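Entry under discussion copied across for reference:
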Amino acid sequence: MKGFDKFETPKLTVDGIVFGIEDYKTNTMEEKKLKLLLIRRGIPPFEGQFALPGGFLRSGETVENAIARELEEETGITNLTKLIPLKVYSKIGRDPRGWTATAAFIALTNTVKLSYDKSGDAKDPIWLDLTYDSKEDKIHIGDDIIISADGFVLGNQIAFDHGQIIYDAFKKLQDEVRYHDIIFDLMPELFTISDLHNPYKTILDKTETIQAFRKRIMPKLEETDLYENTTSAHRKSKLYRRKPKEENNGYV
């Protein structure tokens, strides 16, 4: 092709799709909500729009080093419980700054605390509620962001092709929860059955009763003598921990 440099290479970025769990408590209810971490872009392109935390690979960095650095700089997160490669996105035109590919990673954390460098190109990192509608195959984020199966974002509120990346990451999260016990990586060391049940239902959009869930999950759990600290009117629930992996066979 005329004018084509066969040795030309794209710029490389990394993006993190970070899922976390937040405790939600009222006088009558306690549950854990699934959260997705987004930032607002502080510079063009897409200034002011929501985006995934991430940035350009630096000289001498691996993509794993780069995503860890970017997450710390833009959101303050350092205590990841799991980092899972998702895929590389390289569609031509995905970035108006030029030919750019990105390596996307799913990251899990069991805290939703944030602290960040305000001098960077990202601002206002925020945890937003995430729910999934399996009938329509749509992801709902916060109050008004909806992502459909083709990555289309209602209202064009998310920068770049990050809507597609978020959708792909969530579907991967579903598979990991369904088949590989990854739900435990969203939990603290000690948790109640209800703590596990609420995020499980949200991620898979299942109506399974807590009694059925308890019966199925118990072989993977180790009972403790401890009980949760609660402000609700209900009686305190017993705390469990995950069995050591060598004792924990099978799938959730």
